Amino acid sequence: MGSESVGTSLEQLRTSAQALAQRVYNSEQVQQSLQYANEHPILTLFLTLVVAMGTVPLLIFLFFIMGSLIFTVSGFLMLEGFLLTIACLVLAGVLSGAAFVAVLLTLTVSASWFVVSHSQEVFSTVKSHLQDCLKGTMENIAPGEGSNTPHKDKEVQEEKEKMPNAA
Asked: What is the mean pLDDT of residues 75-101?
């Protein structure tokens, strides 16, 4: 079934090409050119050879240009691909470094916050214990006997114990 459709397509192509060739051949300009070629065979031969011999170098030159363009574009694409790869690697390194610094800063701030908040709690606890201790020693010391520091009170009491006759 596929080969029949290809066969009919080729037949239609051949028919249309023959119709086009017949139209071109029957045109008035082509008929005049053929008549001129029959009247001046040497000039026609010269023009035919010039066109035939000039076509080969022209085609070689055009192929060279096309090849150069293809290789230039390919090389440019390779270079751009390489540069894009390097740029992506540099970007990944910079972003990784920035993420690392951000994590370190976050950990530092979190640790500082933790230390400050717990230091405040510890300071409050120590302060309340000291106040409790100081209230206890102030109650044990009779008015007028004590000095401002409990350490000196202990020294005075020890001296009094050493000298029992002084009282």
From this structure: 95
